Every structure is written in structure tokens, then in C-alpha cells.
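Intended use. Records like the one below are meant for learning the mapping from a protein sequence to its folded structure. Do not use them to infer anything beyond what is encoded.
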Amino acid sequence: MDRSIIRQAQEFQAKMAKAQEELSDATVEVSAGGGAIKILITGQQQVQKVTLLTDVDIADRELLEDLILTAVNEAIAKSQELAQDKMGAITAGLKLPGMPGMSGSPGLGRKGFW
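Structure written out for the chain above:
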């Protein structure tokens, strides 16, 4: 096997590992209900913090549940977008099955995520 291919594969693997580490450190914050609900999530879709303003009316349980759901879903979408941008920069031009935007496949079983 050509040594340059092995070297390129090792470089690619190192870049991917670094990107995944950066995504675990990166965070995205979103809000819903005019800032009443805030969600902090990592680039690996791990929710770190949920914040409710003190003046949120928790008596209206259904509204509160809808606001939380909206904020969490938006946070996940933003986090996935961040991950796709980060990984897409590394995989640009490659035709790899399972990578977003590379071959049309959805990835490793997570819709919209590699």
C-alpha cells in the first residue's frame, strides 16, 4: 500500500479527532418565549443547562412544556448545524459514505448528523 495514502489517512483521522474534541467544548445557546427559556448545548448535542427566568408562569404547565420543547429542538438543530459545518470543512471534497453532504446518506443512524 502506498505510504502517502496511509499518511493521508492518519492526518485525516487526527483532524477528525481534533474536530470532535472541539465540538465537545463548543456550545450553542438558544432561547424561546422571548428569552424566558434558555438552553445551552454542546456541539455533540449534550444539553448542559436549562434556564428559566424567575418570572416564567409555571402555573401554565402546557405553555411551559411547549417553550421547553421548542428551545430544546432549536438547540439540537443549531448544534447539529455547528457539527456539520465543522466536519464538512474537514471532509470537503471527499466522497465518504455516512458523512453529511458527502454522498446523500443520512450518516450513522442520526438524522442530519454524521
